Amino acid sequence: MKGHNKNQNKFNEDFKRMVVELYQSGTPVKQLTSEYGASDVSIYNWVKKFSPVKFEDGTVATADDYTKIQKELRRLQEENEILKKAMAIFAKR
Q1: Longest Cα pair distance anywhere in the chain, in angstroms?
Q2: Does Coiled coil count among this protein's keywords (predicted)?
Q3: Most Cβ neighbours (<10 Å): which of 5, 6, 26, 27?
Q4: How far apart are CA 33 and CA 18, in angstroms?
């Protein structure tokens, strides 16, 4: 399992985004794998992660953005619960 993580971190985020941009501009995956040393599976995963999706209201987000937003939402919900509990404690005094 450790080897898998090591491979996953072999390429930084900027590199992955560059490969996705090349893919989106028409560069075939086979060419990208031979030029940059990433597997086709990795490239397709990066495309899925970094390709923008346009919403009805015109906003654009990637799967990566969505994951970050979910984490931030959970963090804010936890903070909100802590504050509610603190308010209840102070209201009793």
Answers
A1: 69
A2: yes
A3: 27
A4: 13
For 13, the token pair is 């985020």
% residues pLDDT > 70 (the chain): 90
Cα–chain center distance at 44: 14
Rounded to whole angstroms, the Cα distance separating 39 from 37 reads 7
Q: Residue 46's pLDDT is what?
A: 95
| Least confident stretch, 4-18, 57-71, 79-93 | 4-18
37 sits in the region (left: phi over 0; alpha: psi -120 to 50; else beta) called left
Distance separating alpha carbons of residues 81 and 76, to the nearest angstrom? 9
Phi, psi of 47 (to 5 degrees): -60, -45
